[in-house]
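Study this one:
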Amino acid sequence: MQQIAIFASGAGSNAARIIDHFRQHPTIKISLIVCNKPGAGVLNIAAQEHIPTLLIEKERFFRGDAYLPQLQELNISFVVLAGFLWKIPSALVQAYTRRIVNIHPALLPKYGGKGMYGHHVHEAVIAAKEKQSGITIHYVDELYDHGQTIFQAVCIIEEDDTPETLAQKVHWLEHEHFPRIIEEVLSKKR
């Protein structure tokens, strides 16, 4: 059984989709929700689904053991970043080389990097008058939004789109593709 940890910072809509996708899976289990924000919606989802949670703090995550002992104790074999806003420390990247994936709400390498998350991305894309945007699912390395691309999906930007309407289109792509791509990546890791 592959044990997955989902790292999330917010409401948890992507985490909910992933949990639902793997609910009855014979070889993949969502075993832990890791969160850096007390009160985040994803913690409520974890409670409803009876999934253990780990609330992390910045100092230990970046300058301590990066919570590796807890992940290892639960036999976590793969990490999914689903709206997790902190950079992943080197210790974690090295322990889980090519076993951490992230989803980004734009077509990398454009509109990535520090500070480029959520509405900031959609505002930048609209301001640049791009004709399309989308999602990028990629492996995580030591840099923001930098690791090898696994999958991209595109949506067309209409003239009357706003950052809010673009966010809805991108969110739909995330929910449509992220669970399936995680499953494909994991099936290759067996």
